[in-house]
Amino acid sequence: MANSQLHLKKAREIADLVNNGKITAVEVAKYFLERAKILDEKVNAFNSFTTELALKQAAEVDQKIKNGEKLLLAGVPIAIKDNICVENTKTTCSSKMLENFIAPYESTVTSKLWAAGAICIGKTNLDEFAMGSSTEHSAFGPTRNPWDLNRVPGGSSGGSAAAVASRIVPLSLGSDTGGSIRQPAGLCGIVGLKPSYGFISRFGLIAFASSLDQIGPFATDLEDAQLLLSVIAGHDPKDSTSLKNTPAFKAQIENKSNLKNLKIGLIKELMLNEENAPADLVLKFNESIKSLKLAGAEIKEVSLPISTAHALDVYYIVAPAEASSNLARYDGVRYGYRDETALSLNPMYAQTRAKGFGKEVIRRIMIGTYALSSGYYDAYYKKALQVRRLISEEFEKVFTEFDVLISPTSPMTAFPFGDKLNDPLAMYLCDIATIPANLAGLPAISINCGFDEKNLPIGFQLMAAHGQDEKLMDASFDFQNIFKNSSNIQSQIPSIAL
Ligand code: GLN
Predict the structure, then answer these.
(1) Alpha-carbon distance 56 to 317, whole Å?
(2) Which listed site, 23, 284, 408, 489, has its alpha carbon 20 to 30 Å from 267?
(3) What does the pLDDT look like over 149-160, one tens digit per residue?
C-alpha cells in the first residue's frame, strides 16, 4: 500500500486501512511523526512529541489487529492539548509553573482513546492554563495559523487546532471553558465541538474553571468529529460532574433530522454588521445564511438579550473566581516550579507564583480573588451566579421554540500577532459569541462556512439545548454539506498542509 498523502485522509479512512491490514499502525505512526517534526518547525503547534509512546502504542495496535480485533480509531494519530494528562508524559499547561511536570496518571479521555487504538503523537500548545484567545499567552512561544503564519490560530487550544488544520494529525483534543475549542476551530477552518457539560469526563484535565471546562474534539469534518466524540463520551465515576445519562454516541452521524423541518434561530444580537466587524466578513457571513435559505432552511431571528449583553461580564467573574481557587495549589511546595532564592516561606510562595505564572494568569487570579473576597463576594460573585441562572433560563425558554441557534463563532477572522496582546478587553471580546454556551452548559460547535478577502477561514456556530448533542451534530452535518457546495469555499486546505 502506497502510504503517500496519508495526511490528506480522514481519521475514519486511516482506521479502515489499518483494520483491514492494508497498512500497519507503525507505518502510519512513522509517517505522521516525521511529517510533524518537519511542519511544526513552522507552525509550533506542539510543546512535545511523544515518539516512543506513539511507536509502542502502534505496535500494540498492530498486534491486536493481527489477533482479529477491530478498533474504532485503529492507528489514528491524535494530538492532545497540553492541559490533559497522559501518564508518564510531560503536561505543562504551557506554563513555566509546570514546565517539568510529568503526569502521574492517565486522564479518562486519553485512556479511552488508547483503548480504541488511537496513537499519541504529542502534546499541543495553548494559552497558559487555557486563559486566552490567541495562544500568545503560552510560556513557550505562540502557535502560528497555518492559513497565514503571521497570524494567531485562536486560543486557547490554538496548538490542537493548528495541528489539525495543517494536517499534522487528523484529530486532536482541546478544552473549552469560554470558546477555546470553537474559536480556534473557526480561525483555522476546521470543526471544533464543545459537547454538553457533563458528557465528557474532566478527570485528568487540569482545571481552569471547573463549572465551565469541557473537553472536546477537533477534526477536519463532522464525520471525524462524531467518531472521536463517540470514543471519548460517557459517564465517569471519577468525575463528580459527569452525567449518568450521557448517551452512547454512534460512531457515524445518522442524519435523521430533516433540514426543512428544523427550527433554526439566528441570534439577533450576535449578527455582524459594519460597526462590529470588517465589511468582507459581514458580507461572507450573510452569504452563508443565504445559502442555507436557498437550500430550504427556515431561519427566524431570535433575541437573547440577557445572554448576549451579560455573558462576558458574568464569565469574567465566575471563571477567574474558580481559577483563583483551582490555581492555589501551585505554591512551590506541592507542584512544579519553586523559586529557590527566597529565604523564608512566605516570600517563597510569593516569588514562586510571581515568577512561575505569566501576566494573564496573574491578572485572572487577582480578579478572582477580589471577586471572592468577603467584602465583595455578594456584589460580584453571588450576583454573577444569579445572572448565570437567568442566562440558562433564557436559553431554556428559547429552546422550547427552536432546535438550533446559529451565529458567527467570532466577530473576526485570524488577527496578526500582537494585535490584541496589550488590550485584554479586546482579547476577551473574541469570545462574545462562544461564552454563553459554557455558562448554560450547552453543546455548541464551530464549522467552516467560507473565507474572507484575505482567504482566512470564517467560523459558523451552532448551539442546541443541553443534552441535544446528537441533534446538533445532525444539523451541522447538513450545514456542512451546504457550505461545501456553495461557492463560498474555494479551498479546504491551507497550502502549507498539502
Ligand atoms: N478566551 C477565554 C478565556 O480567556 C476562553 C478560554 C477557554 O475556553 N479556555 O478565558
Answers:
(1) 44
(2) 489
(3) 999 999 999 999
Report the candidate in 120, 100, 124, 102 with the shortest Cα–Cα distance to residue 110. Answer: 120
Tell me which residue of 93, 116, 117 sits closest to 234, measured CA to CA: 116
Q: In residues, how long is the chain? A: 498
Supply the CATH number for residue 52's domain: 3.90.1300.10
**Would you say the C-alpha torsion 92, 94, 98, 99 has a positive or negative sign?**
positive
Q: Report the atom number in ligand 1 closest to the C-alpha of 179.
A: 8
Q: Which residue has the least CA distance to atom 5 on ligand 1?
A: 178
320: Cβ below 6 Å to ligand 1? no
Closest ligand 1 atom to Cα of 180: 8
Find the domain containing 123 and state its range.
6-303+390-498
φ/ψ of residue 475, rounded to 5: -65, -45
Catalytic residue, from 81, 284, 420, 471: name it: 81
pLDDT tens-digit map of 149-202: 999 999 999 999 999 999 999 999 999 999 999 999 999 999 999 999 999 999
Strand partners, 214: 176
In a domain, 356, yes or no: no
Q: Residue 86, class by beta-carbon neighbours within 10 Å (0-12 exposed, 13-18 middle, 19+ buried)?
A: buried
Active site residue: 157, 166, 180, 196, which one?
A: 180
Contacts of 373 (CB under 8 A, 6+ apart): none
Q: Please report whether residue 355 resides in a domain.
A: no
Q: How far is the CA of 174 from the centre of ligand 1 (A)?
A: 12
Q: What is the pLDDT of residues 257-300, one digit of tens each?
A: 789 999 999 999 999 999 999 999 999 999 999 999 999 999 99
Is 379 part of a structural domain of the chain?
no
- Cell 487555557: give the residue: 130
Q: Tell me 380's DSSP state.
A: I
| Strand duo 46-49 + 119-124: pairing | antiparallel
Residue 438 in contact with ligand 1 by CB distance below 6 A:
no
30 flagged as catalytic: no
CA of 297 to the centre of ligand 1 (A): 32
Q: Is 160 in the pocket of ligand 1 (CB under 6 A)?
A: no
Q: Let me know if 111 is a catalytic residue.
A: no
- On the 0-12 / 13-18 / 19+ scale of CB atoms within 10 A, 308 is buried
What is the best residue among 127, 210, 410 to mutate for testing ligand 1's pocket, by most ligand atoms within 8 Å of CB?
Answer: 127
Ligand 1 contact, 174 CB (< 6 A): no
Total domain count, the chain: 1
Q: Residue 392 catalytic?
A: no
Answer yes or no: is 83 within a domain: yes
